[in-house]
Amino acid sequence: MLRPWHRRLGLASALFILLLTLTGVAINHSDDLGLDKTGVTQAWLLDYYGIAAPNHVAQFGHGSSALYITDNLLWQNQQMILEAADTLICAAYASNMLVAIDAQQLYLFDKHGQLQETQNTSTGLPPGLFALAIIDDRVWLNTENGVFKADEQLIEWQEVSALTTPVIWLNKSDTLDTDIINLARSANLSWQRVMLDLHSGRLFGHLTIWLWDLFALALLMVSLSGFWIWLKQKTPR
């Protein structure tokens, strides 16, 4: 009577055991496999998680030197180099550095995309930034208090009260590499998160957690029934 149920429960649990084994190994070695740093690029899976496309997308420049903004993220060579506190406005190269701004802060990078410095009003940056311009390798800012330009060391800001020629402020490119939108979505979901959700059952919703609990109970029953069958078949002394 017990043996058929033992067999049925064992077969029903086999797929569950295989899933737990594979996801468990992946989670344990997520650092070696790079799962924590690898974003999900499959659109259907991103849609399933409800990860929408960024609201603000802009490209500055073309080709290998292009810079991309997706909401508060800055991308160089399709690698995210900054997650700002606010929506970024624009970014550009100036001499041997890279400059990006949001409404209240200026971010200074080296040419390889390593963040070197963040400026705000506490460091003398004018408040309320609107636009950025690079003129003769000098950084200019259009702000709520007027136009300012930086010194060569990008330390002090001087207000420009009278403009002899109009300043050409940076505008986003008319063309856009749409791959950056998928990259921006993938930045919000790593394969490590997917493996964790699959391992725990949360990937399929709240009800699946209870299903995982039933599978765990089935495994317990398989263990107990197997021990009981072995005990009953044990040759008496």
How much of the polypeptide forms β-strand, as a percent range? 25-35%
Over the alpha carbons, how many angstroms does the gyration radius reach?
28 Å
DSSP strand tally: 12
Note the gap between the termini.
25 Å
Low-confidence stretches: none
Task: Give the CA-based shape.
Answer: rod-shaped
Averaged pLDDT: 84
Strand neighbour order, sheet with most strands: 1-2-3-4
Keywords: Membrane, Transmembrane, Transmembrane helix
Transmembrane segments: 209-231
InterPro entries: PepSY-ass_TM
Protein name: PepSY domain-containing protein
Descriptive notes:
Keywords: Membrane, Transmembrane, Transmembrane helix. It comes from Shewanella phaeophyticola. This is PepSY domain-containing protein. This protein is an alpha+beta fold and 237 residues long. The chain contains 6 helices and 12 strands. It has helices at 2-28, 30-33, 43-48, 179-186, 191-200, 206-233, and strands at 57-60, 67-70, 73-76, 79-83, 88-94, 97-102, 106-110, 115-119, 129-135, 138-143, 146-150, 157-160. The strands form 3 sheets. A 4-stranded antiparallel beta sheet has the order 1-2-3-4, with helices on one face. β5 (88-94) and β6 (97-102) form a beta hairpin. α1 (2-28) packs antiparallel against α5 (191-200) and α1 packs across α6. The protein is rod-shaped and about 100 Å long.
How would you concisely characterize the structure shown here?
It comes from Shewanella phaeophyticola. This protein is α+β, with helices and mostly antiparallel strands.
